[in-house]
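Figure 3 (text version): structure tokens given as input.
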């Protein structure tokens, strides 16, 4: 049961949106997903409240640094994928979640390319590696990419980040009405009305390709790393 965490120290990078799109897509494909909502704005908890029970999705709202590992342990048996949505911060909760992750997704807005928040998360990942030999797989996912951004411009952004050793997903998350409306309508992209949401088919295809790429990046088996030294190290790194 891999743990996929969305982190960017800067607010508004698209973490919550990307986390919900991934979680609902995986659930639609039949995987059991537990979302740990550690974003103080609680958008995903609110989405869950207005959606009613959703097949294959559980949402845990009260997530603190001390309880994070318990939530994962207690829900392991009934979860295929954990998705953690973090605050736009760099604190102990962020460091703990990252330390427990199999893959850290770092959303960066494709248009703005303001990568300072992403750089802070990359620095945290580097410290975990250098101080404790804990290597957490991670990738940047470009978000809110407008259809006007050319393939060439995207390739240039990817080349820039790859030159710094950062993997960038091939599938960006587009700027789509459906990705905003899902928080107001509840449910999943697949349960939305195509007559009322523009380009819903494109949003569904985007979500499918994104989830497919994320799944390809995950290890086949979850790693175990629950030693005391590990948690002392990640607390220090925070
Ligand atoms: N792909 C997208 N298409 C359209 N709108 C988007 C997309 N991604 C994000 N947004 C919008 O951008 C705003 C910020 O997105 P979101 O809440 O996902 O970011 P965040 O990184 O979780 O922010 P915070 O750090 O405050 O938790 C929201 O209004 C959201 O609806
Ligand atoms: Mg958020």
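Below: residues designed for each position.
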């Amino acid at each position: 049961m891999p743990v996929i965490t969305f982190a960017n120290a800067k607010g508004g990078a698209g973490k919550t949106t990307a986390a919900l799109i991934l979680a609902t897509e995986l659930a639609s494909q039949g995987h059991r997903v537990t979302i740990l909502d550690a974003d103080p704005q609680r958008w995903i908890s609110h989405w869950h409240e207005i959606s009613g029970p959703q097949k294959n999705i559980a949402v845990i709202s009260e997530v603190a640094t001390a309880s994070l590992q318990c939530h994962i342990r207690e829900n392991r048996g009934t979860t295929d994928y954990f998705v953690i949505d973090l605050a736009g911060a760099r604190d102990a909760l962020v460091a703990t979640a990252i330390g427990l992750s199999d893959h850290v997704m770092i959303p960066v807005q494709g248009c703005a390319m303001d990568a300072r928040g992403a750089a802070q998360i990359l620095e945290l990942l580097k410290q975990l590696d250098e101080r404790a030999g804990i290597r957490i797989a991670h990738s940047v996912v470009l978000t809110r990419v407008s259809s006007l951004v050319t393939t060439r411009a995207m390739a240039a952004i990817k080349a820039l980040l790859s030159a710094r050793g950062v993997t960038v997903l091939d599938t960006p998350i587009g700027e789509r009405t459906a990705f905003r409306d899902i928080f107001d309508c509840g449910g999943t992209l697949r349960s939305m009305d195509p007559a009322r949401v523009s380009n819903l088919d494109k949003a569904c295809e985007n979500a499918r390709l994104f989830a497919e790429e994320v799944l390809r990046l995950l290890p086949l088996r979850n790693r175990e790393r629950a030693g005391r030294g590990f948690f002392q190290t990640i607390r220090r790194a925070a």
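Residues 3-226 form a domain with the Rossmann fold fold (CATH 3.40.50.300).
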